[in-house]
Amino acid sequence: MTGFFRTVDKLRPVYDIVYDVVLVICKLLLVGDILITSFSVLGRYVPFIPDPAWTEEIVLTFMSYMAVLSAALAIRKKAHIRMTALDVYLPDMVVKGLDILSDICVLILAVIMISVGWKYAATIGAKGFYVSIPALSRFWKYFPIPLAGIAMLVFELEALYEHVKSIFVDDTKKDSKEGER
After folding, report:
1. Tens digits of per-residue pLDDT, 93-102?
2. Taking Cα atoms as reference points, which of 65, 92, 60, 78 lies closest to residue 155?
3. pTM to 2 decimals?
């Protein structure tokens, strides 16, 4: 059984690449938000700088992408708020089982986000346009939901794998060797 886990562990660089790509996208969106907001504020107070109407809608769209993508990133780093107060009182296998149940629930949410989010983006979003940018489809306003669902699915599959692996593989030997270094 450990041979299977060693084989699947070789996929870790793929998860690292996906994480890094999503992180870079979030950083670029944040920089875009800051630049566009600064331009908009300057345009309001400096007479020779224009204040375009499109800045507010683009900033809000960028923020919606950042919000859902950063939530997906938090799955990989286990940075979401979690109820762990009772974990010390429960048997280890019960805690692992609850972690797996939680992973399955988040996987279901990710699939719903992908399917329903795509349907909304392709139907409602594709029919409308931004008010201040009539050439830009509202598809891009709804697209963060299925995109984040894909990222959540990828990171949650990794989390589920790690929880299942913890049941079958004893990492205490590995941890004790690392502690000696």
Report:
1. 999 999 999 9
2. 78
3. 0.82
